[in-house]
Design a protein that fits this description.
By secondary structure, this protein is an alpha/beta fold. The protein is built from nine helices and seven strands, in the order αααααβββββααββαα. Its cofactor is a divalent metal cation.
């Protein structure tokens, strides 16, 4: 076999959080025997999430069997997912910010049953792909605050945000939020851009936005910019670029990545 050096961008703090969680899990189970020490196991799991390497590649790189890779990853995902914040905890963080940025993102999947129309719920007409809809809350400087549990990709962003309780929580605590026009009608605390105006009944053409309205949209887009960076950072975890696990277990991956992203901030 051929070996070559490789690198990945991840903070030592995130790696330490995972290693401490693994040590605690081992002490709780009163077992110390593992092929890899906690620090090396944490590095393996981060490499899996960050780079999307296959079990065979990870087994070769760490000198262990593929079955051991599978066990080590499964063992680490549960405590990572358990450390992910709840919506209530995220709202407490959001209350200390000048405003937050709300946006939806589709994370693609390729393992979904096609029988009995099951795949339709995961099919996004906008993106022409199957995936999960997740709602992302970011702060004004582009740090992740919260990722919602996933919903099937056919759900509209507004419906997903309401179902996950985000809209009601923002309104109840009077938290200002910036969002795109998909969240039109979300309430007085959620600011959206100016939508393209309706057709003129006389000419049949869409009425153009005024200069002031265009300036408002430009300023609003700049305000939302940091949220787009969070979405890009989320997709930099290659395991989420096209999820190959069951749709029913994908939520655990999202929560695990969320924990590491927040720890890295």
């Amino acid at each position: 076999m051929l070996y070559y050096p490789s690198g990945m961008t991840v903070s030592s703090r995130a790696l330490g959080v995972l290693a401490d969680a693994l040590r605690g899990r081992r002490n709780q189970r009163r077992t110390r025997w593992r092929k890899l020490p906690a620090g090396r196991q944490a590095l393996l799991v981060v490499a899996y999430l960050r780079k999307g390497d296959t079990y065979a590649d990870l087994a070769c790189g760490f000198g262990i069997a593929t079955s051991t890779v599978d066990r080590d990853i499964r063992e680490a995902l549960d405590p990572l997912a358990a450390m992910a914040p709840t919506l209530e905890q995220a709202i407490e963080v959001a209350k200390r910010k000048a405003f937050v940025i709300l946006d939806g993102i589709l994370l693609r999947i390729d393992r979904v049953g096609m029988a009995s129309g099951y795949a339709r719920a995961f099919s996004s007409g906008k993106h022409q792909a199957h995936g999960h809809n997740v709602q992302v809350i970011a702060d004004p400087v582009g740090r992740l605050v919260w990722i919602s549990p996933p919903l099937p990709g056919a759900r509209h962003d507004m419906g997903a945000a309401r179902e996950r309780g985000i809209i009601d929580a923002l309104a109840a605590h009077e938290i200002s939020a910036a969002a795109d026009t998909a969240y039109q009608g979300a309430g007085p605390t959620v600011a959206v851009g100016q939508r393209r105006r309706r057709k003129d009944p006389d000419t049949g053409c869409y009425r153009r936005l005024s200069r002031n309205q265009k300036d408002v949209n430009t300023a609003h887009a700049r305000r939302r910019g940091p949220g787009e960076r969070v979405n890009a950072e989320l997709k930099s975890w290659r395991i989420l670029r096209k999820i190959r696990s069951s749709p029913h277990t994908a939520g655990r991956l999202f929560a695990a990545v969320q924990t590491l992203m927040i720890a890295s901030a």
